[in-house]
Design brief:
Elements lengths: L1 E2 L9 E2 L1 H5 L23 H12 L7 H32 L20 H8 L3 H41 L5 H6 L5 H14 L9 H29 L17 H18 L6 H5 L9 H31 L17 H37 L4 H4 L1 E5 L2 E4 H20 L3 H28 L7 H32 L8
Antiparallel strand pairs: 1-2, 3-4
Main location: membrane
Subcellular location: Membrane
Protein name: Amino acid transporter transmembrane domain-containing protein
Length: 492
């Protein structure tokens, strides 16, 4: 019996002869794909939902701050530039899902179930270990960052309601009575993720991705509406062509670091290559090929996110100018319309619940594949708990995924400024995962001749993105250093 490889948690056993034959002679089996696995059911729309859930995170609310650092000239231009880069490199990566390459009409070659599988099939050697280390460190950092972000939104709801009920909007007594720690909310978020983490794989969380994507549109739309209202109340748009200037409280060095961080934030906000192969592995079998489906899904999701990113960033900057806050929703205060802000923050929390799962599924699947291979005869690995006639939970999955969620929660509580560290992880991972590996895999699989015009253009793109990663990493390091100056463990 051959066990299901990584790509969607849990083990599924099929006939070894079926797998060895590639399933081609059993294509008539309605429930199996060409690799002997249960037939995939993903479409352009489910893949788009996964991508939008992963890409449009709560970070969209910080884009007004990023635009404020760069100004009206560079800010929107950088957004459009990186939308184009992400779309192009994502299509290159999608064409490497099958080791045979193939074209958009016919899918041939062996499937890659994970990003690491694709790197192994195309490049091999030390590239695989390097890819895995960067990918999983990045995903772990994102999980911690999402825990912090969700707790901030939950705490904002509590504070807004508290301020409203005490009816003392400017009173120090009211402010002190509404102060609380975010740690309980991190624990609550972790408890919810423990439950949702028992969903076995990507195929089973399509509904959660669609719900999360809808929530991202909800809070983005509220932010847009409030931005428009604030701009109208101001009597016009604020801001300048070059962004925040050198003034009181902003030194020339800070201007440089903030600009680099803003440039990096915009670039990384679009990146989802780290989970693209895992998403592609949910797409139903051809025709058309999985690469063609992912190209359409990428076009839809990048177009949607670009519109929302540009609107949220630009309207937020128009509303607040150089004083644009890190979180667009906090710029409107805690008070009125407090109920609308509560809805927006609640949508942020629901979205992050889904986004956490989308980003963590590759980690879950990798560990479970490794454990199944390491202890194939373990009774603990095979044991299941029945919760109903059609609901059974793997004991190993319950134990390991609960431990993982608990670890991310504790790290979030220990390092409340971990968002800066996540930015550093994003800076370090952007170039290799989003640009370098997709470019090199495409070159290797499709026989792009070294020294040809196409090869030179691809290498120039890779080199330019490497410079961006290094610059953004420098800006993130500066932020981490500043955060360490006032660091207090479990400060919440």
């Amino acid at each position: 019996m051959a066990k299901k490889p990584c790509g969607g948690g849990g083990a599924f056993e099929v006939s070894s002869s079926l797998v060895e034959s590639g399933g081609r002679n059993n294509a008539g089996a309605a429930w199996l794909d060409d690799d002997g696995r249960p037939r995939r059911t993903g479409t352009v729309w489910t893949a788009s939902a996964h991508i939008v859930t992963a890409v449009i995170g709560s970070g969209v609310l910080s884009l007004a701050w990023a635009i404020a650092q760069l100004g009206w000239a560079a800010g929107p231009a950088v957004m459009l530039l990186f939308a184009a880069v992400i779309y192009y490199t994502s299509t290159l990566l999608a064409r490497c899902y099958r080791s045979g390459g193939g074209d958009d009409a016919v899918a041939t070659g062996k499937r890659s179930y994970t990003y690491m599988d694709a790197v192994r099939a195309s490049l091999g050697g030390r590239h695989v270990a390097l890819c895995g280390a960067i990918q999983y460190a990045n995903l772990f950092g994102v999980a911690v960052g999402y825990t912090i972000a969700a707790s901030i939104s939950m705490l904002a709801i509590k504070r807004a309601d508290c301020f409203h009920h005490v009816k003392a909007h400017n009173g120090k007594r009211a402010a002190s009575s509404c102060t609380s720690s975010s740690n309980p909310y991190m624990i609550l978020f972790g408890a919810v993720e423990v439950v949702f983490s028992q969903i076995p794989d990507f195929d089973r969380i399509w509904w959660l991705s669609i719900l999360a994507a809808a929530m991202s549109f909800t809070y983005s739309a509220i932010g847009l509406a409030l931005g428009v209202a604030q701009t109208v109340a101001n009597g016009g748009a604020k801001g300048s062509l070059t962004g925040i200037g050198i003034a009181a409280g902003v030194t020339p060095a800070q201007k440089v670091w903030r600009s680099l961080q803003a440039f990096g934030d915009i670039a990384f906000a679009y990146s989802y290559s780290v989970i693209l192969i895992e998403i592609q592995d949910t797409v139903r079998a051809p025709p058309p090929s999985e690469a063609a489906v992912m190209r359409k899904a990428t076009a839809v999701s990048v177009a949607v996110t670009t519109v929302f990113y540009t609107l949220c960033g630009c309207l937020g900057y128009a509303a607040f100018g150089d004083a644009a806050p890190d979180n667009l929703l906090t710029g409107f205060g805690f008070y009125e319309p407090f109920w609308l802000l509560d809805v927006a923050n609640a949508a942020v929390v629901v979205h992050l619940v889904g986004a956490y799962q989308v980003f963590c599924q590759p980690i879950f699947a990798f560990v479970e594949k490794w454990a199944a291979a390491a202890w194939p005869d373990s009774a603990f690995m095979a044991r299941e708990i029945g919760l109903g006639p059609r609901l059974r939970i793997s004991v190993f999955r319950l134990a390991w995924r609960t431990a993982f969620v608990g670890l991310t929660t504790v790290v979030a509580m220990l390092l409340p400024f971990f968002g800066d560290v996540v930015g550093l992880l994003g800076a370090v991972s952007f170039w290799p995962l989003t640009v370098y590996f997709p470019v090199e895999m495409y070159v290797a699989q499709h026989g792009v001749r070294r020294g040809s015009t196409r090869w030179l253009c691809l290498q120039m793109l890779s080199a330019a993105c490497l410079v961006v990663s290094l610059a953004a990493a420098a800006g993130s390091i500066a932020d981490v250093v500043d955060a360490l100056k006032v660091y207090r463990p479990f400060s919440g």
